[in-house]
Design a protein that fits this description.
- This protein is mainly alpha-helical.
- The protein contains 13 helices and 2 strands.
- The protein has a two-stranded antiparallel sheet with strand order 1-2.
- α10 runs antiparallel to α13.
- It is globular.
């Protein structure tokens, strides 16, 4: 019966009249989305690269300056400090988010009571906007820090850094947890049973069976948390605003300020945005290559 059903489905998919109808009506659904994508992303992206070679205050008043904007961007000390702050934050947040999310998912796939409720509760912070979360956590953390350490996030860069880590981890752990839960639920039970029969203990099961099996999900979650860490803007703006003295200013916020606070030339901010794009792409591709190679090796 299963074989007949498969044949029937295959014949239905390759039905000539159905294929003709698909080819006829597909553009109706594809073209509007494609046009919107080009208008909302492709054209602004190309226009942004073009403007990075100009000095401008408005789009109607531009002066070609070549690589001058890029030279100024690379000579900006604040841009360098924002870059290294972003790198440090991203490394710490990626580790915290993925380790905690994996551990929570592992516990919640053990059949404990109320696991579905816990999954919902852990996922809920991801539904709240970054600006709102930033201001909420600013109030909470400032109150705690002022009570015990007589300071605030805006007065101490170390507190600001860990405040950002706590905020972003609290927001994203639930989302990554859902992905890990789905992956852990698909680990073949026969693999676990066979390993136990061979005398494997808990750590050995985790290292040789569970982690290799869920590596595709680790790749996805690492990619998402990595790119989110580099692109973080709204939480940084709301929680610290780069204070004190731009010591907690991340790349996205630095670019925003360079562009919108400039009184003479927005081109430097645009050049920084292009550099930022290249950095994110290179780092993300390197991460994908590394984790996918682990999938193959395992």
């Amino acid at each position: 019966m299963k074989k007949k059903a498969k044949k029937h489905n295959a014949s239905a998919i390759t039905n000539p009249s159905q294929l003709r109808a698909t080819k006829r009506y597909a553009p109706i659904f594809l073209w509007p989305t494609f046009i919107a994508f080009c208008i909302g992303f492709v054209w602004p992206f190309i226009w942004g690269i073009y403007l990075s070679f100009f000095r401008f205050k408005t789009l109607r008043n531009t002066t070609f300056v070549g690589l001058e904007n890029y030279v100024k961007a690379f000579s900006d000390k604040d841009f360098y400090s924002s870059f290294w702050f972003t790198v440090l934050f991203t490394v710490i947040s990626v580790i915290v988010i993925n380790v905690v999310a994996f551990l929570v998912a592992f516990v919640l796939t053990k059949g404990i009571r109320g696991s579905n409720i816990f999954r919902t509760i852990f996922f809920m912070p991801n539904l709240i906007g970054g600006i709102v979360l930033g201001y909420l956590w600013k109030i909470i953390l400032d109150a705690v820090i002022m009570r015990f350490l007589d300071s605030t996030l805006a007065l101490n860069a170390t507190y600001g850094f860990w405040g950002l880590v706590i905020l972003v981890s609290w927001q994203q752990i639930g989302y990554m947890m859902i992905i890990y839960v789905a992956a852990l639920q698909n680990v073949p039970g026969e693999y676990i049973e066979a390993a136990k029969i061979d005398g494997a203990n808990g750590p050995q099961l985790m290292r040789h069976i569970i982690i290799p099996t869920v590596m595709p999900s680790i790749t996805i979650c690492t990619f998402l948390s990595l790119t989110n860490g580099f692109k973080l803007f709204d939480q940084n703006l709301a929680l610290t605003g780069g204070k004190p003295f731009k010591e907690t200013e991340m790349l996205a916020l630095n670019i925003y300020k360079s562009f919108y606070e400039s009184t003479t030339n927005m081109g430097v901010g645009q050049a920084k945005a292009v550099i930022f794009f290249v950095i994110v792409v290179v780092v993300a591709l390197a991460q994908l290559y590394f984790t996918r190679s682990k999938e193959v090796q395992e």
